[in-house]
From TrEMBL:
Pfam families: UDPG_MGDP_dh, UDPG_MGDP_dh_C, UDPG_MGDP_dh_N
Entry's Gene Ontology molecular function annotations: NAD binding; UDP-glucose 6-dehydrogenase activity
Residue numbers binding NAD(+): 35, 86, 121, 158, 269, 334
NCBIfam families the UniProt entry points to: NDP-sugDHase
Record domain UDP-glucose/GDP-mannose dehydrogenase C-terminal: where: 320-427
Protein name: UDP-glucose 6-dehydrogenase
Entry similarity comment: Belongs to the UDP-glucose/GDP-mannose dehydrogenase family.
Stored PANTHER family: UDP-GLUCOSE 6-DEHYDROGENASE TUAD (PTHR43750)
Pathway(s) where this gene product acts: Nucleotide-sugar biosynthesis; UDP-alpha-D-glucuronate biosynthesis; UDP-alpha-D-glucuronate from UDP-alpha-D-glucose: step 1/1
Listed EC numbers: 1.1.1.22
Lineage: Bacteria, Pseudomonadati, Pseudomonadota, Gammaproteobacteria, Pseudomonadales
Keywords tagged on the record: NAD, Oxidoreductase
Source domain of life: Bacteria
Length: 446
């Protein structure tokens, strides 16, 4: 099939590469010239395992190409996927300016009928708006055809995006006509050979499903963080509780980890957007508000613990920070808990020595001044980050941080204190090595 994917970010680029891998001919339209130039030479601008190999293979095979021009992108395309960002707008709603701009461009560029599929996460009713906008422009250009629209929300996870796209748990097809459903079913068939997990529903239900899924996962996290707060006061280890409830099949083990809050480009903005949708309908989203409030509080917890430990005196203290990305496996720093911690530590006068396997490049803009002055140092090795440190704070549970040589770290640090923002370390073992250990919702150790 001839396809167009608009937007070459985490979702668009993975979508384009994976459809090309299945033998489709894909043109990916990207408006950022720097990103475009890098992609055209086979250089992936984001960190995503397996993506570079696919990109290079299909640039070489000719199955995949990139363009700045919508006209070029949709020429002969049977399906156009919109995969541009929908960040939080001023009032908390999803900012649809990129999506609607794409609709206008499509309305100007299309020369033939095409199925337009929304892959971006957008509020209920957006696909309809997109379709109307495109068709209005087609009418004003005196074109005789109109587009059909569909919603195909994306469920890939950063860090395993290629794998998730290639082997999806399920594919949601939101279509209001049979022809679009059949077209998308055919396109996705090679990804679903061993199971038939295609869920067909209406466009609006598909749009809502994506928000409900993310809001539910965020709710599980905030619920566990609330339980952790109570555990800490009752001298109970939340990790025992997590194992205890996770073994119940009705609850399951996913997304019940207490920690320093959720971040990333989806959960925070999608919970906010859903709250705003509810407000616009005059419906009170009490649970969602609580989920968001708990998370905001949770993100400040590590700093509070560090500050308390040093009796509020952080000026001149050296704090090692392990992990900056919002989760392991990605370089994405959007709404990462690490940023809340770093901002507070730097404002309090601490020196920060931070290490992340892939996310350091993204620190240049926001922390240019601190990097310049040396108040913030980025290290390649996790051990270098702990040199002369008064505290070590684990923020992102990358595999490289899971089983370090604590005896070596004990020798490097000025004061042996570990704040474990993901509860990955064994409190008793660390106490035995002479560390003071502070987890989230765990009894004090050491
Ligand atoms: P992103 O910011 O990484 O990428 C968006 C890309 O679109 C950028 O490269 C941008 O330059 C480009 N773009 C914007 N306007 C354009 C235009 N008019 N023409 C061409 N290109 C344009 O965003 P993302 O993380 O890939 O997310 C995209 C959408 O998918 C969002 O709605 C998001 O909520 C949703 N989503 C994201 C994830 C994820 O894990 N990142 C997962 C599922 C769904």
């Amino acid at each position: 099939m001839q396809l167009c994917v608009i937007g070459a970010g985490y979702v668009g680029l993975v979508t384009a590469c994976c459809f090309a891998e299945m033998g489709n001919r894909v043109v990916c339209v990207e408006r950022d010239p720097v990103r475009l130039a890098r992609l055209a030479r086979g250089d992936v601008p984001i960190y995503e395992p397996g993506l570079e190999a696919l990109l290079r293979a299909h640039l070489a095979s000719g199955q995949l190409s990139f363009s700045a021009s919508m006209g070029e992108g949709v020429r002969n395309a049977a399906i156009a996927f919109i995969a541009v960002g929908t960040p939080t707008g001023e009032d908390g709603s999803a900012d649809l300016s990129h999506v609607l701009a794409v609709a206008d461009e499509l309305g100007e560029a299309l020369q033939q009928p095409c199925l337009v599929v929304d892959k971006s996460t957008v509020p209920v009713g957006t696909a309809e708006r997109v379709g109307q906008r495109i068709n209005r422009r087609l009418a004003s250009r005196s074109m005789s055809f109109r587009v059909r629209i569909a919603s195909n929300p994306e469920f890939l996870k950063e860090g395993s995006a290629v794998e998730d796209f290639m082997r999806p748990d399920r594919v949601i097809l939101g279509c209001d006509d049979g022809q679009s459903t059949e077209q998308l079913r055919r396109l996705y068939a090679p990804f679903l050979r061993n199971h038939e997990r295609v869920l067909c529903m209406g466009v609006r239900a598909a749009e809502f499903t994506k928000y409900a899924a993310n809001a539910f996962l965020a709710t599980r996290i905030s619920f566990m963080n609330e339980m952790a707060g109570l555990c800490a006061r009752l001298d109970v280890d939340i990790e025992d509780v997590r194992r205890g409830i996770g073994s119940d099949k009705r609850i399951g083990t996913h997304f019940i980890y207490a920690g320093c809050g959720y971040g990333g480009s989806c959960f925070p903005k999608d919970v906010r957007a859903l709250i705003r949708s509810a407000e616009l309908e005059g419906f009170e989203p009490g649970i969602l508000r609580a989920v968001e409030a708990r998370n905001a509080l949770q993100k400040t917890l590590l700093f509070q613990s560090v500050r308390e430990h040093f009796n509020g005196l952080l000026q001149g203290r050296i704090v090692a920070v392990w992990g900056l990305a919002f989760k392991p496996g990605t370089d994405d720093l959007r709404e990462a808990p690490s940023l809340v911690l770093l901002d507070a530590l730097l404002a309090a006068g601490a020196k920060v020595q931070a290490c992340d396997p892939v996310a350091c490049n993204g620190m240049q803009g926001r922390y240019a001044e601190a990097l310049e002055s040396g108040q913030l140092q980025l290290t390649e090795s996790p051990y270098s980050a702990t040199e002369s440190a008064d505290a070590l704070v684990l923020v992102t549970e990358w595999k490289q941080f899971r089983q370090p040589d604590f005896a070596r770290i004990r020798g490097l640090m000025r004061m042996p204190v570990i704040f474990d923002g993901r509860n990955i370390y064994d409190a008793t073992e660390l106490a035995g090595l002479g560390f003071l250990y502070r987890g989230i919702g765990r009894p004090l150790a050491g």
